[in-house]
Amino acid sequence: MRVLVISDIHGNLPALEYVLKEEQSADLVISLGDVVNYGPWSNECVDLMDSLKSKVLILGNHEEAFLDGLYQGSNLTAKAFFEICYPSFNRKDQVSKYIKMYSFKDAVFTHTLNNSYIFNDSEIQIEKDTFIGHSHRIFLKDVNGYRLVNVGSVGQNRINIDELNYVIWDTENNSVELMRKEFNVDQLIQEMKIKNYPEICLNYILSKRIK
């Protein structure tokens, strides 16, 4: 079985469409959460994920914020994104069905561990092969004989916004392939301008472009 594992789409519909087209031969798609917020297509991304025949949809912290109707953090940029994205969001019924965790073939899939940003140098304990997102950093590392796989971000790479990341897991040979693809975000930026995103949001996205 060929499993496409994605995370942190963040309302970036063109990037999501690109990945699903590139990996249309996947037998199963597992989304590790944060389909919504930041980008201007939260509703459309939720609908596209719902339309897939074979999928597992896991709850991220941004779905939780949208369900609560409240951003509880103190980051001014994140708050600005929430305030521009949340009012037009109307897919609560769909994201309320997302699950916290999924287990499959001795592997665990969840948005993150310990409600933390997990990076390649983070100290963490796992008891099974574990797939996570949340930190927008793609990596694979060995932890006590198990694989910890961060699948990165489809919609908002925080090192180079013009690159998207995901993982292909082949369950037959138990191989994990980390995928890095160039993907221009001009369409994302243009739509943000059309939707009158505040300057702090546009500047944030532009700051993630490698000059």
Please work out how many helical segments DSSP would assign.
Answer: 7
> According to CATH, what is the topology?
Purple Acid Phosphatase, chain A, domain 2
* End-to-end CA span: 39 Å
Please report the first level of CATH classification, the CATH class: Alpha Beta
The low-confidence parts are none
Provide a descriptive summary of the structure in words.
With 211 residues, this protein is an alpha/beta fold. It has a single domain, classed as 4-Layer Sandwich (Purple Acid Phosphatase, chain A, domain 2), CATH 3.60.21.10. Helix content is 28%, strand content 25%. The chain has 7 helices and 10 strands. It has helices spanning 13-22, 42-51, 61-68, 76-85, 92-95, 186-194, 199-207; strands at 2-6, 28-31, 55-57, 101-104, 107-110, 129-132, 138-143, 146-151, 163-170, 175-182. Strands 3-2-1-9-10 form a 5-stranded mixed β-sheet, with no helix packed on it. A 5-stranded mixed β-sheet has the order 4-5-6-8-7, with no helix packed on it. A hairpin with a 2-residue loop joins strand 7 (138-143) and strand 8 (146-151). The longest helix has 10 residues, at 13-22. The radius of gyration is 16 Å and the shape is globular. The mean pLDDT is 97.
